[in-house]
Structures are given as structure tokens and as C-alpha cells.
Amino acid sequence: MDVIALPDNMLVTAFNDSPNRRSPLRLAISRDGGRNWTRSALIEDEPDGSFHYPALLYDAVQVSTYLNYLLGIMSSEEGNRPRPVEQK
To answer: What span, in angstroms and rounded, lies between the C-alpha atoms of 58 and 64?
Structure first.
């Protein structure tokens, strides 16, 4: 999970919206200092996916927010070790 504050005082978080899995990966925003959150975007939702270690970055020059994260597919034969996803 990661949280950043934007120049307009909005908070943005990237998180796994599950109590026990690394999927789905979502963004949420707060306009009241973190007291209330609204889910704003579904980034990844592969049932066997593993989307973890999200990192948010705000670029003031480009006025853009970036999200980086690791991804993999869980294999029942490999237990909980993520493996790389092939490029499509």
C-alpha cells in the first residue's frame, strides 16, 4: 500500500482490496484528510494475479501521478511464490 498527497490536498492510495490476496489492485481518493475514502479505479483484477508493492509518484512538472507495482501469477504448484507474467 502507498499513499501520496497531491497539491490540492487530495490523498491517493494504491492498495490490494482483499484481506488475504494480492488482487485486486485499486486506487482510492480522500478529500478530507483520510477520514473517508472513495474507490476510484480498478487497476488489476486477475483472480490468480499477484499485484504487490505499489508505489505512487506525483510529478509536479508534468502534473501527473504515476503508479508502479510488481506483478505475477500465482501457481498452485509453486505455493505463494509469484512468477513473472508473460508479455502479450
So the answer is: 6
Residue 15 maps to a domain: yes
Is 7 within the bounds of a domain?
Answer: yes
Is 73 part of any domain? yes
Q: Cell 504448484 maps to which residue?
A: 77
With a threshold of 0.90, does the pTM exceed it? Answer: no
* All three cell numbers of 86: 508473460
One-letter amino acid identity for 47? Answer: P
Q: Which amino acid is at 82?
A: P
Check: CB of residue 43 under 8 Å from CB of residue 27.
yes
- Whether 24 is covered by a domain: the verdict is yes
* pLDDT at position 81: 46
Range of the domain at 19: 2-83
pLDDT, block means (10 residues), the chain with 88 residues: 94 94 94 96 89 91 90 58 43
